[in-house]
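User: My collaborator sent over this chain with a note saying "see what the structure looks like." That's all I know about it. Can you take a look?
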Amino acid sequence: MGLPPKTPLNASVGGIFRDREGVCIGCFAQNLGNVNAYHAELVAAMLALEIAQRKGFNHLWLETDSQLVSLGFKSHALVPWSIRNRWENCISSSRNIHLTLSHVYKRR
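Assistant: Without extra context I'll predict from the sequence alone. Here is the result:
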């Protein structure tokens, strides 16, 4: 029997930036400590947006396997209060990026 999804775990996140040809143009990874999976998924999305903005990327296709993260873009009320301010600042400051968001299902 697995752990409940809200149980904090030692989590880390990462992502890869690719150009339109699929060539890696950058990547990131960060240790988050004891947070739940949803928190980690949201932080990964925020880091991707923050880095894209800082690097001047005009187009970003963000793929996530978390349907809740996808819903967080539509309703900020779904984002935990502990990171909601950062989330809203991130979304607001990345308005100049053409963002495509995809929910991809995990393979099991």
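A starting point for your reply to your collaborator: The first strand starts at residue 9 and ends at 18.
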